[in-house]
Amino acid sequence: MHYNYGDNPHKAANSVKPVGSLQNQFNLLDNFIDCCYEMVCYCNSELIIEYANKAYHNLFGKNGQSLVGQSVKTVLGEKVFNKAQLYIDKVLSGEQVLYFEQLVHNGNQFKFIEVRLIPEKETEKGNTIGYWATLNDLTNEKKSDGNFLTHSLFYKRFREELWMADLKFQFTYISPYSKNIFGFAVEERLTQSYREILIPDSFSYFLEVFQTEIAKCVSGQQGKKPVIMGLEAYHKNGEKIWVEIEADFLFDSLNNLVGIYGITRDITERKIAQLKATKSQNIYKAIFESTGTATLIVEEDTTISMANRECFDLTGYSTEELVGRKWVDFVQEESLEKMLLYHNRRRLSTDSSLKKYEVKLINKKRETREAILSVGMLPDTTQSIVSIFDITEQKQTLQLKQELENRFQNLYENASVGLYRTTTDGQILMANPTLIKLLGFSSLEELQKSNLEKEGFVSQGKREVFKQAFKNSNLIIGFESEWKSKNGEVIYVRENVHSIKDINGQVLFFDGSVENITESKKVEQERENERILLRTIIDNIPHAIYLKDLELRKLIANDTDVKNMGLSHEEEAIGKTDFEIFPHAQAELFNKVDQLVINTGKPVLSHEEKVILKNGVEKWMSTSKLPLIDVSGNIRGLVGVGFDITEIVKAREKINLQEKALNSAANAIIITNKNGIIEWVNKGFTKLTGYSVTDSIGKTPGDLVKSGKHSSEFYNELWSVILAGKVWFGEFINKRKNGELYDEEETISPI
Q1: Termini Cα distance of the chain
Q2: Which residues pair with 257 in a beta bridge?
Q3: 47: closest CA among 16, 81, 73?
Q4: Is the torsion defined by CA of 725, 728, 732, 737 positive or negative?
Q5: What strands lie across the sheet with 507-516, from one edge to the other?
Q6: Confidence of residue 149 (pLDDT cuts 50, 70, 90)
Q7: pTM for this structure?
């Protein structure tokens, strides 16, 4: 049941308004209560305040409306409520509590309150449904009395020293409990001042604080809260103790400051515990900061309450940026559900969730970091401690390693060359498909039944050479040998082999690659045969054949060329230029033609050259020089072919001499082939007939000089004599080019 007291702002908002003539009576009652000097309030049976009058402001400095809806325990504070609990229980049982005194603090100073409690009962059933409380402020009366601190209700309920001092800090009252704190009797303590019982540093602090507060009181700026400070003091036995002083100021009835009163508590054990806790905390913090791994303290609601410096390296967030935030802000979505599940399970039972597991976190750059969390609960708390191990690089390394292993396996399985591992005595441990196929086996298992050393080599001597090579080296490149396949076929192979040794240098395995060079060997052999054949032809051909590089040094010279150079062996010419073999002037002529071929890439054919041998003998050579072009189209040198034309030159010179003699003869001379076609005429013929050499060549004599004066029988007889190989002699009547006829004696001789 709730009461309503009109529109008074200090009343409960959910009360029901009375109706009829009762309303006026309630309004009169409201006005009366609000005018009371004493504080009046109403509390229901659940100890919730439903009404408070205006006097509440005079007593506590707050508007009564702020009290409505609050619990009595909240308003009084737990300590005062516990002391008043006995009286509240009585009034709720239906008894009136006519008087009890209570010391309370209104937020600014202590107040000594006289309290009366009256139960409120239902009309019909008589059940207690709440109570009325009146509070009367007795503080000024007690202070003016001067001895109020001796009131039994004050010091008997406190296990602390209660004291009062003048403004010079000389004690005027000490409660009996003082001896339990300082070891001095009350009479001894009354003769002391705070200067004597506090160590110098603490007294200086005490003096500074109180002088400041006293100055505020004198100026009317008294602080709203009592002075509370922890100080270090002396015990009677000489030991140092820690005390907490809570003090306020005494005023007379004219509101003049007359002294100080307060409470002294022994906090030595608490201080020692705090120091130990601080030391432990410092040690814990030092350990926390020195773990070498990112470490967090996480609250039950996932708030991060602590983070060490290593967290910055992992997340990019400073400690200040992490503390106070939820760890869920830094977790990738795919890991969030799992982490929350473990987080909640761990607080129900430490054994019900994993203590170590992998997650994906998000750093300040929004990059994903792979991490392992190691999580445990702090004893007797709902906090968990989390160590974070960044395994991003490790995962990347493992992934790279796996990729490399996969690539290696793929390369190993699909390599175009054979790969193997064997022991030193030839036992096959590993072989890829290419090698298995090369040797004619169907599987590795079948191949492993054979022994490479005993059955794989055509020549055992080669195997020994192979093993001897590893005494001075760990690696052999390009070792060629002959192997035998499963069916006995000879296979030529080229190996690159690395030896695997133990720590003592003893060979354990051979890891090698095998290239099948059988076909290339056959091609090589064919090329060698071709080379031999070509060289045989070159050396036995009667013409000179040679090869020069771009520097015009001899690379090949056959026997004829060697003789033409006046040398005995090919080796004498190899690597030399013409300037090192022939006289300089002659070498210049050769070099000029050679350079023309090299520079233009065009051949020079049938070029006649005179060669003077070392013995002074002259030779004439007809030489053709061609550029040597490789498969890429680049000129690599030149090839020269020359044959001796010395006799031809001599014959040509002789013919030239004879021709000159015939041309010089006064008689007309012509030469024809067996068909009578003119091939040559001398000057005497052209002078006699008027026909030039050009007019004559290719014609018959009859085409030129036939006069028609002779019969066909004449000419038939003439040719019968000549074709018989005899000389014909007779006379002709011929005709010149200009038509004139002339008589001619003619001798025709067959050749």
Answers
A1: 168
A2: 251
A3: 73
A4: positive
A5: 428-431, 418-423, 507-516, 490-501, 475-484
A6: very low
A7: 0.37
Q: Distance between CA atoms of 408 and 36, rounded to whole angstroms?
A: 98
Residue (of 166, 139, 172, 168) closest to 255 by Cα position = 139
Q: Is 232 exposed, middle or buried (0-12, 13-18, 19+ CB in 10 A)?
A: middle
Residue with tokens 């059933």: 125
Predicted confidence (pLDDT) per residue in 260-279, tens digit: 888 888 888 888 887 777 77
Two tokens, residue 60: 């506590």
**∠ CA 538-544-548 to the nearest 5 degrees?**
85
Q: What are the strands of the beta sheet with 544-549, ordered from one edge? A: 554-557, 544-549, 635-644, 618-629, 604-612
Please give the Cα distance from 669 to 663 (Å, whole number).
8
What is the CA angle 245-247-250, rounded to 5? 155
Tell me if 207 sits within 8 A of 260, measured CB to CB.
no
Phi then psi for 338, rounded to 5 degrees?
-65, -45
Which helix H or strand E contains 548, and what residues bound it?
strand 544-549
Residue range 454-472, pLDDT digits in tens: 777 767 777 788 888 888 8
Give kind and range of the element (H or E) at residue 261. strand 257-266
- CA dist 456 and 418 (Å) reads 14
CB atoms under 10 Å from CB of 127, counted, come to 12
Q: Please answer whether residues 420 and 432 qualify as being in contact, where contact means their C-beta atoms are separated by less than 8 angstroms.
A: yes
Comparing 289-293, 298-302, 736-740, the range with the smallest average pLDDT is 289-293
Amino acid at site 673? N
Q: What is the DSSP letter of 48?
A: B
DSSP 8-state symbol, 244: E
Do 492 and 480 meet the contact criterion of CB atoms below 8 Å apart?
A: yes
SS3 category, 198 = strand
- Band of residue 47 on the pLDDT scale cut at 50, 70, 90: very high
Match 């007795």 to its residue by tokens. Answer: 138
Q: What is the H or E stretch that residue 732 is in?
A: strand 728-735
